[in-house]
Specification:
The chain has five helices and two strands, in the order αβααβαα. The protein is mainly α.
């Protein structure tokens, strides 16, 4: 793992408050995994785009495969649309345009 990747992982862990976003279990730098809410698959990348799939809001910080699986919203079109909207709105606020 590169130094940049290690830094990104520590930032992600800090963003969760150091606990599993599903069950609340305390995590350490080596005991967590990122769970894609909209799964990282070729069909989902074609449908939602890399921007949505790779966005930090699409990734939950969890402790186990069980908690990972419970984050999957891919079969719920409405929840996927809500998440995509949330991601887009957050990014629009970061980069306001003049109209």
């Amino acid at each position: 793992m590169t130094e940049v990747e290690e830094t990104q992982r520590l930032i992600a862990l800090a963003s969760s408050g150091g606990v599993c976003e599903v069950c609340g279990k305390t995590l350490t730098a080596t005991t967590w995994q990122g769970a894609h809410r909209i799964a990282n698959t070729k069909p989902n990348r074609a449908k939602w785009g890399n921007f949505i799939i790779d966005h930090p809001l699409n990734i939950a910080i969890v402790c186990s495969l069980n908690c990972n699986h419970s984050c999957n919203i891919g079969n719920n079109e409405g929840e996927c649309l809500k998440l995509a909207r949330r991601i887009i709105m957050r990014e629009l606020l970061r980069f306001p345009t003049e109209e």
